Amino acid sequence: MTTPDQIPQTDPVDARELAAGGALLLDVREPAEWSAGHIEGAVHTPLGELDPMTFDQDRMVVAVCRSGNRSGKAAAALADAGIDVRNLAGGMKAWSEAGLPFVDDDGEPGTVA
Question: Is 64 one of the catalytic residues?
Fold first, then answer.
C-alpha cells in the first residue's frame, strides 16, 4: 500500500507543464473550495468520492488540493491502482503564490478557500 510520502511531488510550474502535455489535473477539494477557485481545465472529484478504477491508466494524473495533504492521499490511492501520479506540493496555495491563473465558477479570478 502506497503512502502519501512515497508519491512524487511536483511544483506548480511543472504541474502546469505536465497538464499542457496531457496530464489530468485532478482537484480533490470540497465543492465550496472548488467553486471559490480552481485551475481551468482541472477535473473535480472530492476525495471522499474518488474511485481510482475510473481513471485511465495511460494518462498521468496530477492531484491537487488546498495544501497537498488530501491530494497526497488521493495520489496514493491512484498509485495503488497502477496510475502514474504526482502530487502538487503545496496545493492551490502554492499555485496561487506562484502567480499562476485560476478561476471561480463564474470564470472570474479565483481565491483559495
Answer: no
